[in-house]
Design brief:
The structure holds 2 protein chains of 2 kinds. Chain A is mainly alpha-helical. Chain A contains 9 helices and no strands. Chain A has one domain: Orthogonal Bundle (MetI-like fold), CATH 1.10.3720.10. The chains are: A mainly alpha, B mainly alpha. Chains A and B meet through α4, α7, α8 and α9 of A and α2, α3, α6, α7 and α8 of B.
């Protein structure tokens, strides 16, 4: 049993590329999914049953599909209807679609637990509609939900490993290629694992910072 | 139709590996939680590292680490053993946090009362603490089980023909890719939604029976 960690060192540029692809795909996917999640939450909290029931059904269904299944549906299923997407578009689209349902549900629970005080005060000051949402409701919701959103971001990074299966050159795929080329299975996978660990520790740290700031403001 | 048989077989595989992962992972999670709370020197910090590390790993990577990486350390695992072990250890790291939260929340008064009645530590744990901790952990643990079922397609990467991999193979080999993928998706949805419904009604029944807070 002799480990060849020098192979990892030599392949560091490839790993750096893989890490970068994982980070930007997950980051962009998370950002876009937050936008679509917020848009999707509007019918979810709507009082109109004709909007609320189908939206809830979509969210429930979306949360019952495995991520890899969704990737396959987009990658192999859509071409049958004449829509052929390249793998990068597939990757981003599947990340966004998959996480919209989760984020909508996260935002909804934050929305329902929102103390009504500020919203009522804002209404009294003449805020309504989009401005009320953008300036008063949404900032509070996003800050309250930030720990859960942080966890979801970690989940997105972990899910993005499935994209290795459609040969997106992200971190897991890079580890797989390096192990296949040099036969260093333990070294390359444990290195990738440590990088994932590092990424999620960084996000946890960020969430803790936000939480600290929030607690300072929560006193007032 | 040969496809129906193949689908049934791979649904069974998904079902069995998930069950095996839960049956190993949930008790293991309890063990990890108890050991961490007991503050055993060396063991508790190591387990804390284990939980933090494994929780941040993509299951695909974890499965490959077991299947390709561990044999280098001198332990050969066939694909099912590697896959189930990875599922179980992954599940244990998540459920240990659920158990831990429930154990920490448990009121110390009841344990003291049990001790005063002459129960030893084991009896107090199994007769007083565990049944209550179990009941309050059922809802988060069932949602963890649905997450496990949804992450089980990761086992496809080491050649286990579970539902997702089987449907993608069928989609590539006959002329009905959409149908094949939709059948698999539907099976997942039925299983997962049925399970979610089951856990909801179980939770309600427990709430009304035991007046949990």
């Amino acid at each position: 049993m002799n480990f060849r960690f020098e192979v990892i060192w030599e392949e560091l540029p490839a790993f750096a590329m893989g890490i970068w692809n994982t980070v930007w795909l997950s980051g962009l996917g998370m950002a876009l999914a937050t936008v679509t999640g917020v848009l999707f939450v509007l019918p979810l909290v709507s009082k109109r049953r004709s909007l609320q029931i189908p939206a809830q059904a979509l969210v429930d269904a979306g949360r019952a599909i495995p991520f890899l299944m969704l990737i396959y549906l987009i990658f192999y299923g859509l071409p049958a209807y004449g829509i052929t997407l390249d793998r990068w578009t597939t990757a981003l689209l599947s990340l966004v679609l998959y996480n919209t349902a989760y984020i909508a549900e996260i935002i909804r629970s934050a929305w329902e637990n929102l103390p009504p005080g500020q919203t009522e005060a804002a209404r009294a000051f003449g805020y309504s509609g989009f401005n009320l949402l953008r300036r008063i409701t949404l900032p509070q919701i996003l800050i309250t939900a930030s720990p859960v959103l942080g966890n979801q971001f970690i989940q997105v990074i972990k899910d993005s490993a499935f994209l290795a299966i459609i040969t997106i050159p992200e971190l897991t795929h890079t580890a797989r290629v390096v192990q296949a080329n040099y036969f260093v299975p333990f070294e390359s996978f444990i290195f990738a694992a440590l990088v994932y660990w590092g990424l999620s520790l960084v996000i946890e740290f960020g969430v803790n910072q936000v939480e600290r700031v929030r607690l300072i403001y929560a006193k007032y | 139709m040969i496809e129906i048989e193949l689908f049934l077989e791979s649904t069974l595989i998904t079902f069995l590996v998930s069950i095996a992962g839960c049956l190993l992972g949930i008790p293991l999670g309890l063990l990890v939680a108890v050991l961490r709370l007991k503050k055993v020197p060396l063991v508790s910090p190591l387990l804390a590292v284990y939980v933090s590390f494994v929780r941040s790993l993509p299951l695909v990577l974890f499965v490959m680490l077991f299947y390709y990486g561990v044999p280098i350390l001198g332990l050969n695992l066939d694909s099912y053993t590697a896959g189930i072990l990875a599922l179980a250890l992954n599940n244990a790291s998540f459920t240990s946090e659920i158990w831990r939260a429930a154990l920490v929340d448990f009121s110390i008064d009841q344990l003291e009362a049990a001790r005063a009645y002459g129960m030893n530590r084991q009896q107090a744990f199994w007769r007083i603490m565990f049944p209550q901790v179990w009941r309050s952990s059922i809802p988060p643990i069932t949602s963890e089980i649905t997450l496990l079922v949804k992450s089980s397609p990761a086992l496809g990467i080491i050649g286990i023909n579970e539902l997702t991999r089987r449907s993608s193979i069928l989609a590539a080999s006959n002329y009905q890719p959409v149908l094949m993928l939709l059948i698999a998706t539907l099976i997942y949805m039925v299983v997962i939604l049925a399970f979610a419904q089951l856990s909801r009604s179980l939770d309600q029944r427990l709430q009304s029976q035991y007046e949990l807070v």
